[in-house]
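Q: How would the C-alpha cells look for this protein?
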Amino acid sequence: MPTFRNLDGADVKGKRVLMRVDLNVPMQDGKVADSTRIEEIVPTITELADKGGKIILLSHFDRPKGRDPKYSLRPIAAEVARRLKRPVAFADDCIGPKAQTAIAAMKDGDIVCLENTRFHPGEEKNDKEFATKLAALGDMFVNDAFSASHREHASTTSIVAVSGLSAYPGRAMKSELDALARAFEHPEHPVTAIVGGAKVSTKLELLGHLLTKVETLIIGGAMANTFLAAQGKRVGRSLFEGDLISAAADIMSRAHALGREIVLPVDAVVAAELATHAPSHVVSVDQVGAGDMILDIGPRTIEHAVSVLALSKTLIWNGPFGAFEHEPFDNGTIEVAEATAELTAAGKLVSFAGGGDTVAALNLASVKDRMTHVSTGGGAFLESLEGKMLPGVKVLLVAEATRSTE
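A: Here is the predicted structure in C-alpha cell form.
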C-alpha cells in the first residue's frame, strides 16, 4: 500500500475543495436508514471547513437510468447537515450552471452537496469531458470514498488524471489504507484469515492471494461445503458449487505445498430448510444426511476456530460462518466474533474485517466497535484483499509522486 502525506500540510483556505464521498447509503421511507458512511466523512469535512475551505461534495447514489428524482441526493444531503451540525447547501446538478451558481455563492467554510453524479452517463463511462467539467468546479481534490475507489469512474479517477488538481486522501480513506498496510505489509505473525460467504467462485482470487500472506486460512459459510465435497464428503442438500470442486482441491493442494493450514468445519448445524427457527441439530461433517442443509458451524468447529485465533496475532475477516440472518444459524458467527473482540480488547489480536455481510454480522454480535478496524468498503475492501491496486487510490498515488518531485 502507498504511503501518503496527509492533509495537515494542505493549504485549503479560500479554496474550492472537491471532495469525493460515498453517500450511496440505505434509504427507507425517504430517510437514511444507516448513516455509517456519513459518520465516517464528518471528520474530514469538519476539518477542511474549519480551515476555511469551500467544501463541494461529490457522490453517486444507487443506479439511476438517467435523471430520476427518486435517486436524488437531496434527502441525504439533509442527513449530512444533521450529522455535521452545520448547514449543507444543495445544487440540483453536479456540473453546469446550477452547480456553478451554488459554488459561486459559497463563503469560506461553507459546504455544498452536488446532485448525483450518476445522473450523467459520463460518470460510469469514466468520460474525460465529464471529468473535466467536474474538475473545473474546484481548486483541489480530496477522496474520502474508499468504498467507491474500486470503480474507474469520472469522479474517482479521471477527475484527477485530466486536470492536474492537487489530490489527497481524506481521513477516512487514509484510515482504510493504513489498516490494509498494517494487515498485509507489516502484520504481526502468525496471521489468520477467515473467509466465508456463499460462493467459492466470487473469492477464488482472494483465497489465492491470502495463501501467500497468512499462516492459517479458516473457511466458513456455504463455500466451505464445496471444500468438504472436494474431500469426498457428502453435503446433502447444502449449497455448494460442484463445478468448482477441482478448484477447491487445488487451493488445498497449494496450501499444503506452501505450508499453510486450512481449517474446515468438523461439525455442522443442519436443518431440512433455511428458515428462522427451523428445527435443527448438530452432526459431524462425516454424517450429513441426504436431506440435510448445512447452515452453520457446530460447537467443535467454533472451539477450534477460537483456539486458532488465540494463537494468532493478526486476523483478516471477510464473510460469515453461516446463514446468520436466521436464528439459530447465527450462533457460529456470533461466538467467533465475540471471541475475536475479547482477544482484541486484551491486546492479544489485531483484527481487521470488512464486507457487507461481515459488517452486518459484527453489528448483530454487537462487537463492531471492539475490532481494530472494520471497513465499510464492500467491493473495494475485497479487491484490496485480493492484492489489487484500486483505481481511485492509484490516481492519488500518482498525485503524491508528482507533489514529491515538485
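The first helix runs from residue 36 to 50.

The domain at 177-375 is CATH 3.40.50.1260 (Rossmann fold).

Upvote if useful.
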